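Consider the following assembly input.
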Amino acid sequence: MASQDVVVVGAGPAGLAAALGAAEAGARVAVLAGGVGTTHLAAGTVDVLGYWPPGAADPVKRPREIVARLVEEAPGHPYALVGVAGVEEALNAFGRAVAAQGLAYEGSLDANQMLPTPAGALKPTCLVPRAMAAGAAVAEGRTLIAGFAGTQDFYPGFVAANLRAQGLDAGHVWLDVAAVRARRPQTAVVLASLLDDPAVLNEVIRAVRPHASGVDRIGLPAVLGFRRHPEVVVRLEEAVGVPVFEVPTLPPSVPGFRLFEALRRHLAARRVRITIGAEVVQAFADGDRLVAVGTATASRVQRHPAAAFVLATGGILGGGIVTRPDGSVAEVALGLPVSAPAAREGWLRPQLMHPDGHPIYRAGVRVDGRLRPVTGEGQVVYGNVYAAGAVLAGTDLWREKSHEGVSLATGYRAGRAAAGKSVEPGSGEGSRADLPTGRGGHG
Amino acid sequence: MRRISADVLVIGGGATGTGVARDAAMRGLWTVLLERRDLNHGTTGRNHGLLHSGGRYAVKDPVSARECIEENRILRRIMPHCIEDTGGLFVVTSSDDPAYGDRFKAACDACGIPCEEITPAGALRREPRLDPRLRRAFSVPDGAADPFVATLATAESARAHGARIYRYHEVTRVVLRGGRVSGVVARDLVNDEEVLVEAAITVNAAGAWAGRIAALAGCEVKIVPAKGVMVALNHRLVNTVVNRCKPPGDGDILVPVGQVCVIGTTSYEVPDPENYGIEAWEVALLLDEGEKLVPGFKAARALRAWAGVRPLYSGEATAGGATREVSRTFTLLDHETRDGVAGLLTITGGKWTTFRQMAQVTVDAVCQKLGVARPCRTHLEPLPGSERRDYHRVGAPLRAVEGGRQAELVCECELVTRDQVETAIDAGAVTLDDVRRSTRLGMGPCQAGFCGYRAAGLLHERRQPAVQEANLALRDFLQERWKGLLPVLWGRQLRQARLDELIYLGIMNAERLDTGGRKSPLTDFYLQQAESSAHGVEQPLTGGGGQERHG
């Protein structure tokens, strides 16, 4: 018998948002995932909409306005299904959840912030972790970009030079910190754990301080502490006397780890069970209802029944969508119909950085106005299954810089819907409706 | 115009050209080499990495087979560090004619190629992944070679003997004076200036492009550009070079190269050695053929596909693209006796395995024309880097980076260290692809996903160029890798490509980096090659916002 009302498949940003939405609506939630998703790879910011249309030269300044325009212009886009109000509702819920865990995010749908990237471009992003916030002010005053000598994943001179090429006042310095130099291998996660050590942090402070005079802020790679992150940032800022900000690094992403941990703690406090390493490989259906999903174990397929399900397995990167040499494209967890280019010839463009992106990355599951997967003819496949995040068709999240926005908005909405919070397609706050009664007793 | 003079001018910086330059310089000739791109940019850098025993040609092309085994022995002596002594097997699979094995064995014996029949059980003990239904197997001294390192070592030796090597110098005109080639005019593509090179003898070692160089001197040399496609798989499925024991055909050789293995090749004539695509059917065919040797082959992850264009020379035109019929032996053309144009030699045809012998024959002719009587010594003197007198071993790079304090790795896939990348940058790399050719940067599964950014950062750090140059270097390198990914993007490798998009688009917004409208000498080439390959959406690059930022 079912021990949960809602099973969420996937533990990336969409899956965790779905769990949050369902749990807030009072449902008992279990999250099953093969792995941890893309949170640990991406920058750790919440990008809602950076460019629209995706190939536009200029960044979106006011996402609220442009998301509203997008809803009108692109009915197949996931944002059109949740509306501006749905995006805002999800961002608010997300903000409350992470803040409750001591990981504050700043910003709103009113304005994008332009954050320096590790290449020195500026990327439009909507919600920014507190530790990155000072980076949004690079247009004013002088910014120093500092990197650690002897490490591979951050080049402060390259960042500063590209900032200068955009007319900004920026300089750079390499910090020589013996404890950092001595460490191999040096992924961002290793370095962040190193900076948790007060002795190492003091070394870093000694290296940074001489360069702090005459600058308005200092940017460092996003390794400012792992377990003791907020404390590390506070100590560093106090010691150098100017605001300090993190710049994302190559994966793995420390801000992504922190984000995942904050959401995981928050959900755990709401009795959401998250099982990583439980890959859903099978769907158990009864007519037009899904009664259970099956996860692979060593000896058999284990059934997980629930009243409703959220599919948040990601796209091609997350592993929710697989592609084959014969040109077929499939949704792997539940075997749902997929919308994709007809043949391999139509998947990719000769130019890697073509502003319109590659058609295959827009492949995914199509859904109705309530986020329920549909067939090519528009028929709902299962009345109690909702899909969210990168598994959805119709958008290229990295090109339009909407990854976390789409994931949170559709995830949160799908979670609420799965918990029985019925919502009008494209509308904001849902109205309380029938809580699940049937509990998929086929387990 | 800048002027350079020499006894011998060599055109072409592949295996053959650098081999000629080394040989000539070792014989005391004042030698200049011009390469229009980077060393190894042409066919040498796009080959199979196979040190032939000659077994492949023993039945149908015994002249070439004899050349191969002779050179096989010499290269093992002078450049063991460029060779992994994998050995080779010729396998009669269940799809092949068992009687061909007898012809093969007899032909190897006749050519002096050590060849021993082993039992199917013995072959399977050696290579357990082979199809167990195999009927017969023969052991030969094939090996896995690293043509990149070999050319660089050859060039280093040439320089040590006084040769001057100019990269990114494209020959635009051959200077004829009274029926004699007195040199060439070249364009320095980096500094955008013309250079006049005067030489007593000019050697055309331009490979698949040799016909074009000869034409500049008014001579007709019919090169058959025969495209061969190869696919790298993300596993070392075999540790031995495995050949199908049958008449040479498509996709019948599997070579273990470093951490991966490479299946190849096809052989089809293309109209232009510069502009060819990799067709979907070619990749599919190679994977199907690989499946016949190693069951489960198609389930392995294809990393990349590429093609090299063989400079086949048949003397006369071949009919209908049947390039398998053209001998793999080499030809030296003396345009004085052939066309009445003195001072010009063309060396063409051949195999990578025979490049040293091709150089020797060429420089013998050069010496005769110059009245110099100095014997060739390239077969006696080991190349720089071979001091340990030992073969390359697959675990050596790992041992090197793990020895003592771990090195700083820029490319984890290929274990390329920061020192190696900085050395390549300081040596004058024009593109990050040049760094790749001398270090293997970006040749592993992620195809520059992680190391592209790092290399661009290091390039900026070392050179302090205008930042737009570093931005362009990054974009060029990613596009260069993309053209080889396009034919094999599905499944896990497409997933990898999407991770690279997360990095460059999602984290870095790198598509918005300013290149200031710049182009490198290869920017257009990378895009054009991608456009020629299958599986690009046929759509002109017009319309849409923000086009111009792609420079």
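Chain A touches chain B through 66 residues (CB under 8 Å). Ask yourself how this observation constrains the way the partners meet.
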